[in-house]
Amino acid sequence: MPDAPTTTGSPGGGLADDRIRALDAHWRAANYLAAGQIYLLANPLLTEPLRPDHIKPRLLGHWGTSPGLNLVHTHLNRVIKDRDLDAICVWGPGHGGPAVLAGSWLDGSYSEVYPDVSRDAAGMARLFRQFSFPGGVPSHVAPETPGSIHEGGELGYSLAHAYGAALDNPGLLVACVIGDGEAETGPLAGSWHANKFLDPVHDGAVLPILHLNGYKIANPTVLARLPEPELDDLLRGYGHEPIHVAGDEPLQVHRAMAHALDEALDRIALLQRTAREEGIAERPRWPVIVLRTPKGWTGPEEVDGLPVEGTWRAHQVALPGVRENPEHLRQLERWLRSYRPEELFDAGGRPRPHLLAEVPAGDRRLGANPHANGGLLLRSLPVPGLERYAVPVDKPGATLHEPTRVLGGLLEQVMEDTADRRDFRVVGPDETASNRLEALYHATGKAWQESVAPTDEHLSRNGRVMEILSEHLCQGWLEGYLLTGRHGLFSCYEAFVHIVDSMVNQHIKWLKVSRSLPWRRPVASLNYLLTSHVWRQDHNGFSHQDPGFVDHVLNKSPEVVRVYLPPDANTLLSVADHVLRSRDYVNVVVAGKQPCFDWLDLDQARAHCARGAGTWDWAGTENGAGEPDVVLAAAGDVPTQEVIAAAGILRRHLPDVAVRVVNVVDMTRLLPKEEHPHGMTDHEFDALFTRDRPVIFAYHGYPWLVHRLSYRRAVHPNLHVRGYKEMGTTTTPFDMVVRNDLDRYRLVMDVIDRTPGLAVRATAVRQRMQDARTRHQAWIREHGTDMPEVAEWSWTG
Predict the structure, then answer these.
(1) HEC profile for 632-698?
(2) What region, left, alpha or beta, does residue 485 occupy, with left being phi > 0 and alpha being psi -120 to 50 degrees?
(3) By C-alpha distance, which of 300, 299, 275, 272 is closest to 287?
(4) Contact yes or no for 413/439 (Cβ under 8 A)
(5) What is the pTM of this model?
(6) What span, in angstroms and rounded, lies between the C-alpha atoms of 733 and 519?
(7) Residue 2 has pLDDT above 60, yes or no
(8) pLDDT class for 611, splitting at 50, 70, 90?
(9) Nearest 5°: phi and psi at 64?
């Protein structure tokens, strides 16, 4: 166990004047570089008077937050070097990308990753030109930014990411700058409770730095306008002890910030040392720094007679008309020269030694810490062999198991096998036991730092199951955990995973970009297990019935996303084995927790999952007759059961109809090969589904997704998809499929209606199917349960 960080020198006692001047020089250099990135196309060192052609034609970027971020970066450098800290920073106001890029260029880590952006005048020119420029880098903190684990394009997730990074990293300090605009978002508000789950013994520390510069894009911010005692009460209520830094006079603020960081880090060191040496008596109260500096600090105070510095007008481009307005050009030059660049950079554009005096070296630099490039630290997950957990299947459809309970045994072993290395976690919103994964509690408890009542179960200060009723926080924790080199699984009710739609968007974008950066090492995949799904939310009803997360994910970058719908316990094991070992993907696995028929033994399941889609000859009636008369296809556990039941009815009542049964595990197999790495060629697709025979496809989710994935295929005019169509309520399990026309009787009717020649000669069978649906409606209203012929059905083919 790494020791808690220790203090050197005279913490909190003030710094010598020469050190304050060095910090101020570094901060001025970072501010100069940040402003230069927004404005300058040429003349980076101002060796000649500014002209319009030195200015970018399109001025893009966010100046307002950048001076505050630069201040934090400058002072983190000092304490990291003084205390030999292993530290990263999550930049919540990530729209201040110029600041974070400036810091990594100054510490040399940027030039190490991008040698063409050297730490000299030529490199500075490239740094300026590339920012928010075609062929360059984004204006926000992004995967291209060394030292970052946090996409800055969307606000709200910084603190959750910071805590995820700190979990199971006992020697790591994660500083987290939280913008006061970001602090107004729901995800960030929920994230303040993450300290109730942080174990001071096994986890690292998170130091929130709440940056109150007063304004968002066009409005004041709530927390900045609260009276200080009320803000302190709020932060103390969240379990933090606030330390305040405020001002607009640079040297005064430098001294206050240095003092605040030393005080915060001394508190953290004491809390960790006490917990690790003496045990934990109660949840620690961690420090938080409240930093108040003006928005757009050191920039133009006034433009065209209107105040800018310290107002919302400083948010983006403080001087918008520089090319066209000579006065704006003069004002920009005065602004840039106010940083005295000739004191900061030598004639060759290299930072002068005194401004780098407080910058750490090597991997201790914020731009070079390996925790911010987690693939460097990633170890393969010890996934055990599946034979121990697989259920025996002597013949299809004769036995039932709860697939997620079977998976729970595998996850328990993974949790047990990572007990010493502590690099695997399962997160979920209060649903681990509900989702039948409670076997995990044999290997670990649920993380919890608050009081424990006699009636509580499985709570543990060092547990590695994370449960909180906030999907946002679960997602943020897991993203931070994965991006710093660990493994995990997010288990969630299918309908409510939509709460993190926007978060998964950002993570997918992160992975897409990082895969194109050779210096970014692959990280473990983000794995979703979606259960308590649409077809078995018959007890909770309509509010809990939404299978659309799959549609959302499949709109995203095809090289990153994967979607699996295993139809039984053994296929779920096979899929889980694959996704837990995978890298740089977002894997969505949809599987039921209710008793489900076992269709395939382990070897068959592995082969079927490897194919992603294939025929189940034992269920069909082709009998070597060439092409079938009709294809019955299924994706999902309940649709599979209904398709198999429909195939049994056809076998019994229409034995001369050649039926092919196809099961799809990997939804991306339906896409063309040129659109997704898992997609099928037209030849493969035609061989499986035919080119011109009717295909009745029973799908787990919204029917139009299957049409969208396969609209270019030859068979598409003959493709008829049944799925969820927003017909939900509190009812019986079978009534859910009847209401949505996914039931076995409707599927048989579809076969009769759409197979040439059947409509006339199978009239009696079709009528029998319609009567069964009518009988079903009467039965459930009288008995409240499904008909025996449904409830007691099993495959007898």
Answers:
(1) EEEECHHHHHHHHHHHHHHHHHCCCCCEEEEEECEHHHHCECCCCCCCECHHHHHHHHCCCCCEEEE
(2) left
(3) 272
(4) no
(5) 0.95
(6) 50
(7) no
(8) very high
(9) -55, -45
